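can u pls check wat happens w/ nickel (II) ion
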Amino acid sequence: MKTWKLWENERINEEETRLLRRRADEIPVPFDDEGKRDIETLIDAFVGRDDAAGLAAPQIGISKRVVVFKNGQFNERGPLQKGGGQYDVLVNPRITQIRGDTEKGQEGCLSCPDISADVVRATSIKVKAYDEKGNKINRRYTGFLARVVQHELDHLDGKLIVDRGTAIYFPKEKAPFFDKIFKDA
Ligand code: NI
């Protein structure tokens, strides 16, 4: 499935940027048919790829508040399987607690091809959400997973690593394009 991107081939994607920058809508609870379909579409899009730690619905053109990411059960040596408990789905998620330190780490994003950014994130968060079946859940995430969750939840508010990055990295040969984009940032 196609991933929506801010730019591609050194050209800004105006239409995709508009959706990626939008605040996504909540999924009605209990889930209606459309909500269920959107959740399934996101899971299927994520299970079918191996180039991301997580995926948010706006990244596949669905402006809804749902994200999916590999959880602590994921085994790097095998493929991600549907239903195997190797990923978490968070619907209408809300961070209810931020604890501990912050940490700087380098992040990439399928919607920001060719760049990475240093982003400061909290190392321990608590999230309230619904799972893919509509059950209420409360989860704590720490370390790398806390980073992934904060990254994915940012997508739901139209925020990307280019907004959060304290430093942005890209290949030298693409400098003419990216220097232009980031000069005002
Ligand atoms: Ni991303």
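The chain has one domain: 7-182.
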